[in-house]
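ingest -> fold -> write
write: protein_1
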Amino acid sequence: MLGAYLPILVLVVIAVLFGLGSVVFSSLIGQKKPSKVKLAPYECGCEPVGSARERFSIKFYLIAMLFILFDIEAVFMYPWAVLFKRLGMFGLAEMGLFIVILFVGYIYVWKKGALEWE
C-alpha cells in the first residue's frame, strides 16, 4: 500500500531539495554589493512616498473579499456550460437556483453599503 505513494514522496523530496538548493546556491554565488539604490523599495520607477507601514481601511479588505467571492462564483459557471447539454433541465434548474442565490447575496451586500467606497 505504501509503495503507491513512493512517487509522490520522491516528488516532494525533489521539490524540497530544488527549493533549498536554489536558495543556498544563489546565496553562495550571488553578488553582495548593497547600495542605497538597491536597498530602496521599488514602486514602478516612482520615488516612494510615505511609509510602507501605512494602515488600510477595512473597506479595502471587504471589497477585496467580495471581489474574490463573486469571482469564484463565476468560475463555477464554466463546468456547467461545458456539460450544459448532458445535464438537461435539471442542470438548468440548478444553475438558475445558483444564480438566484448569488443575486440575493449581491443585493444584500449592496443594501448593506459594503460596495460604497468613501
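write: protein_2
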Amino acid sequence: MRKELKAQVVENIAAQLKETPNFYVTDIAGLNAEQTTHLRRACFEAGIKLTVVKNTLFEHVIKEMGEEIQLIIPALKGNSAIMYTEAANAPAKLIKKLQKEGLPKPVLKAAYVQECAFVGADKLEELAAIKSKEELIGDIIGLLQSPMRNVISALQGNAGGKIAGLVKAIEEKKN
C-alpha cells in the first residue's frame, strides 16, 4: 500500500472515530459469502457501520488518542472488523442475537464504549447490559414520577378524604 493511500485510510478511520466514538473490534474471519451478507444486512438494520481494517493502521489512529482507548491495542491481532455505533449496546446485542441464530462469528475482541475500554469476549454480557442515553433518561423520569404518583393516588383514594380532613382540622385550629 502506498504511503499516500495509508495516510488517507488513517484519516478516514480518525474521522469515523470522531463521528461515532463507540466501537467494537470483532473477528469475522472464516464467514462465507452468505453469512457475511447476513451480518452486513443485520448491521445495517441495527444502525451499525461495519468495516474491515488493517490492524496496524487502526493502531496508528488509536495511539494518537487517549490512554484508555489504548488498552484495546493488544486485541488487534488477526483479522479485525470494526463496528461503529451510536447506541453503545447495539453491537453487543446484535452479536448475541447472531450467536443464538447459530452464526459462529462475529466474536468480540474488544470494545471502546462511553470512553471505557472492554477487552475480551467475556465482556459481551456486560456490554449488552449497558443502557442507552434514552433508556437512562426514561429510568430517571420514571423514578422522579413515582413519588408524585403515590401522592396523587393517595389523594384520589380513601386516604384523600383523611388527608383533606386533617388539612381542614389544622386550618380550624389556626383560626
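write: annotation protein_2
The chain has two domains: 3-130, 134-174.
The first strand starts at residue 22 and ends at 27.
pipeline exit 0
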